[in-house]
């Protein structure tokens, strides 16, 4: 399972925007590498005898640009803050939830936005969620050093940290580090404080990781000791026996995100198979497969009930006594401002 993820991720690094896992030609899924693990949508495989055809991308903005430029798929798997962009561009259509029996089991907090659900229909099926927090080498980094997000600007770790090459995640980090826990209401002063902090953090960065496999490799090789990480990078390191810690409760807090599926207009495949795929994803057994493969939680309350006692849930997904910045939809203009500023920061400006 781990080798499968690594090989798929390697395709993403090469920016392959064509189907990379050719299987059932009547459903094309545009997704993050790693989610092609069949056990997550086993019901679909059982019904059709094969997985969908998969195409992979490395980050949300790359996926949007490719779809906006004409790349064809049936469904895609953006995180929540991207849905408004797809809607505004007219790239998606509502789901018919009468064809999704488990829709009502999705925890209401994942649909609490008119961007996802309004009088025109349901535009988004949230399926999975996770945390972004501090991953660190427990044999090198004392626990007290990661008690604060300021470990990322600590001179002691110059050249020893890694941040995601994702504007959403780095701004979540910077806002938290400077005392902002709601990015839907950011003032100019808060934006400036976060940007200044990110510029300091940039001085310590050895590399910006493009995907969890790269982040895990950076840590496993000893190139870095600390990373701002999703759950899956931690899972990869744990599977390799690496002494990784995952600090989700530093003083300033950590972040949570959730992702799901959109129904792309004019998809080349069969619509009924898109619904079979979603129904397989929302089935209770998918929760265990998702947790074991990626380390993420499931949006279905029924599915989550089946894994509530798993150690990985208690360690990587349970509630923590610290502030949480939820990566819910934010203002598209503010997000664009963050993207542009992040590019300047990475370039050293």
TrEMBL record:
It comes from Paracoccus shanxieyensis. The keyword Cell membrane does not apply. Gene3D superfamilies: Periplasmic binding protein-like II. One of its GO terms (molecular function) is polyamine binding. Its main location: periplasm. Pfam families: SBP_bac_8. One of its GO terms (biological process) is polyamine transport. Residues 1-22 form the signal peptide. It is found in: Periplasm. The keyword Ion transport does not apply. One of its GO terms (cellular component) is periplasmic space. Keywords: Periplasm, Signal, Transport. This is Extracellular solute-binding protein.
């Amino acid at each position: 399972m781990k080798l499968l993820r690594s090989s798929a991720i390697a395709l993403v690094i090469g920016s392959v925007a064509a189907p990379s896992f050719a299987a059932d030609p009547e459903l094309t899924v545009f997704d993050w590498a790693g989610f092609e693990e069949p056990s997550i949508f086993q019901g679909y495989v059982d019904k059709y005898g094969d997985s969908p055809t998969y195409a992979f991308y490395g980050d949300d903005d790359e996926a949007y640009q490719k779809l906006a430029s004409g790349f064809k798929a049936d469904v895609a798997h953006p995180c929540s803050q991207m849905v408004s962009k797809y809607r505004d561009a007219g790239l998606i259509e509502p789901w018919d939830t009468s064809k999704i029996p488990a829709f009502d089991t999705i925890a209401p907090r994942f649909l609490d936005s008119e961007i996802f659900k309004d009088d025109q229909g349901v535009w988004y099926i949230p399926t999975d969620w996770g945390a972004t927090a501090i991953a660190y080498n427990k044999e090198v980094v004392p626990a007290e050093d990661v008690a604060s997000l300021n470990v990322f600007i600590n001179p002691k770790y110059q050249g020893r940290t890694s941040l995601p090459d994702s504007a959403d995640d780095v701004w979540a980090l910077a806002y938290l580090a400077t005392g902002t826990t709601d990015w839907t209401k950011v003032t100019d002063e808060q934006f400036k404080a976060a940007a200044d902090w990110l510029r300091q953090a940039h001085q310590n960065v050895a590399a910006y990781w493009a995907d969890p496999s790269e982040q895990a490799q950076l840590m496993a090789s000893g190139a870095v000791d600390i990373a701002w990480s999703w759950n899956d990078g931690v899972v990869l390191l744990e599977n390799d026996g690496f002494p990784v810690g995952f600090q989700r409760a530093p003083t300033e807090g950590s972040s949570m995100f959730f992702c799901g599926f959109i129904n792309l207009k004019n998809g080349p495949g069969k619509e009924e198979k898109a619904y079979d795929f979603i129904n397989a994803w929302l089935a209770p057994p998918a929760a265990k497969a998702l947790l074991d493969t990626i380390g993420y939680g499931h949006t279905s309350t029924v599915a989550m009930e089946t894994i509530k006692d798993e150690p990985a849930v208690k360690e990587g997904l349970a509630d923590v006594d610290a502030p949480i910045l939820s990566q819910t939809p934010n203002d598209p203009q503010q997000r664009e401002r963050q993207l542009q500023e992040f590019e300047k920061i990475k370039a050293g400006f």
